[in-house]
Amino acid sequence: GAVVSQHPSRVICKSGTSVKIECRSLDFQATTMFWYRQFPKQSLMLMATSNEGSKATYEQGVEKDKFLINHASLTLSTLTVTSAHPEDSSFYICSARVSLGYTFGSGTRLTVV
Amino acid sequence: KNEVEQSPQNLTAQEGEFITINCSYSVGISALHWLQQHPGGGIVSLFMLSSGKKKHGRLIATINIQEKHSSLHITASHPRDSAVYICAVRLNYGGSQGNLIFGKGTKLSVKP
Hints:
The complex is a heterodimer. Chain A is mostly beta strands. Chain A is 0% helix and 55% strand. Chain A has no helices and 11 strands. Chain B contains no helices and 11 strands. Chain B is mostly beta strands. Chain B is globular and about 45 Å long. Classes of the chains: A mainly beta, B mainly beta. Chains A and B meet through strand 4, strand 5, strand 9 and strand 10 of A and strand 4 and strand 5 of B.
């Protein structure tokens, strides 16, 4: 089946540094990748939609200069959290549409200290 | 009010029990998804429904489009079914290129 590989699964970084999260589609081409964030006991919330070869579409309230999305190829989309702050600590997960629904990465738990 | 509401929020069951998780939504949808999120956070897609009923192993999902309601049933529950079950809908208009709107999830614990 269609698999999205997401790395890293956990990362701890210092305030002010940047963190890059990668999502790779392993056996299919993902022209679109959805990036979600989930705070404890909350629903997954869409942050942005990345499209191969074009600019990402950000949801209202999501700072595009802080959350940089790159979708340079049909198999790789990245999310970079720049100048991370403790309030950016969250669970980030990517997802791609496939023929039978959606496939999800395994998620990245980011802790900013 | 959230567009996707799930009940119950938390559910504890004894092994072997029949479990039902409910999902109601208030928007027009093209499909409804049931997802399973494990303690580590990883998410697995269980079902995609646009009408009727689907079954996979001990899991059954139903949807009533007129009533805007879906249920996920687990028969003969087992401790390994313990997870958060999430209902998500795909809108049938506009939207961000097909993204999903998620419920808050139902945390299921099945005791041996």
